[in-house]
Specification:
With 377 residues, the chain is of the alpha/beta class. It has 15 helices and eight strands. The chain has helices spanning 11-25, 31-53, 118-124, 147-161, 174-185, 209-217, 221-232, 237-240, 250-253, 261-266, 270-274, 279-282, 287-298, 333-342, 364-373, and strands at residues 73-75, 81-88, 96-101, 126-131, 167-172, 190-196, 320-325, 346-351.
Length: 377
């Protein structure tokens, strides 16, 4: 009868056998599969980032699903529409014709005419037309918007409305910044111009670096970031001002810390409260085409600098005025002082104790208009 065979297995052999069993049972992805997973993750992240920085399509007025058209509009030579609003005396009887250019986060309703006394308008015979800048209110967006294109929009508006060979331009805040481009590109069409608290570009050429840097550093840290993004990486402006990780522009977010004591008082004025009635209309076509593109153009790279401009009225047939509050917390007074030092033909009016919203103070706009038209009276 055959007997059983007993095999003795060493402890080392047993441990080796156990390790092999464990290794053979563990799950391992093939190296090619790992590369594919990493590639898919990378593509997914890039795709998400691309979508995050892409602004939504604008809701163009009069298009299917877009806001309605309620204002009179002209059709520009490139096919865009420009909405406008006429105020003051009739165009045919007017002695002075003024184009009012609104500021940032505003529209045609924010005309200087809102703050003029009816008596002065009638006394002087003033006609004023204000318009929605591209992407604001009911004016079509302009994806190719530049400083020059906006100046030419103003010229075309004047031509189609029959304002004559010369007219006045009054620009407030960001509209004041645009008035520099009017002085650059269509000075021959001007009877006079007023820049009211015009926004500055901290990257203008011709300014001492220490002056520009000091003025820039006076801004809140989040505004320095927002302006820097608009200047250096404009394709990120929409994302920066809509992401939730860091605060974007103080002006866009309505942060009151950027307002001077006078500004805070004016915030509660009856005229300021009227804006609530049409505030939604300002951004109705989308924040990118109104606010963000405004930032990209205004704080981007300019092909000229204000300090390089020539006097459009060498024979004193008209005048240019610049108004600035010395307590403006949005627009540093130091850069305005440098501009008028380099351009002595500008009539400079610095207002003690005034902030950025001084045009809304009682009687202030009457004074601005009278000074502008004084040379023609």
């Amino acid at each position: 009868m055959a007997g059983g065979v007993n095999r003795k297995i060493s402890a080392a052999s047993a441990r080796a056998h156990t390790r092999k069993a464990k290794q053979s049972n563990s799950f391992q992805l093939p190296s090619g599969m790992i590369k594919k997973v990493v590639a898919l993750l990378f593509v997914g992240i890039v795709s998400w980032a691309y979508q995050a920085i892409q602004p939504p399509q604008p809701k163009i007025c009069g298009s299917p699903g877009g806001p309605p058209v309620t204002a009179p509009r002209i059709k520009l030579s490139d096919g865009r529409h420009l909405a406008y609003k006429e105020l003051g005396v009739s165009k045919d009887s007017a002695k002075y014709k003024i184009i009012s250019v609104h500021g940032f986060d505003s529209c045609r309703h924010d005309s200087i005419a809102r703050f003029l006394s009816p008596e002065l308008v009638q006394e002087l015979g003033v006609y004023i037309v204000s318009f929605d800048r591209p992407g604001y209110g009911e004016s079509d967006p302009n994806p190719k918007r530049t400083l020059k294109s906006m100046a030419l929009d103003i010229e075309e508006l004047a031509n189609q409305l029959g304002l004559g060979s010369k007219f006045y331009v009054v620009g407030i805040s960001m509209g004041g910044q645009l008035t520099w481009s009017v002085l650059r590109y269509i000075p021959h069409r001007l009877a006079g111009a007023a820049l009211v608290a015009p926004v500055v570009n901290f990257w203008w050429t011709g300014f001492p670096a220490n002056l520009s840097n000091e003025a820039f550093n006076q801004q809140l840290w989040n505004d320095r970031w927002a302006l820097g993004v608009a200047h250096r990486t404009p394709w990120l402006t929409y994302w920066w001002n809509t992401q939730k990780w860091f605060p974007g522009s103080s002006v866009i977010n309505g942060i009151s810390v950027v307002l001077s004591p006078q500004d805070k008082e004016l915030q509660n004025s009856p005229k300021k409260q009227e804006k609530k009635k049409y505030q939604a209309e300002v951004r109705q076509q989308g924040e990118f085409e109104s606010l963000h593109r405004d930032m990209n153009v205004g704080f981007g790279k300019w092909d000229f600098s204000p300090v390089e401009l020539e006097n459009p009225f060498p024979n004193n047939e008209g005048s240019v005025h610049l108004w600035q509050g010395d307590e403006d917390m949005l627009v540093p007074v130091s850069m305005q002082r440098y501009i008028v030092q380099k351009l002595p033909w500008i009539h400079y009016h610095e207002l003690a104790g005034a902030g950025h919203l001084f045009t809304e103070a009682e009687g202030m706009c009457d004074k601005i208009i009278k000074e502008l038209l004084e040379g023609k009276k």
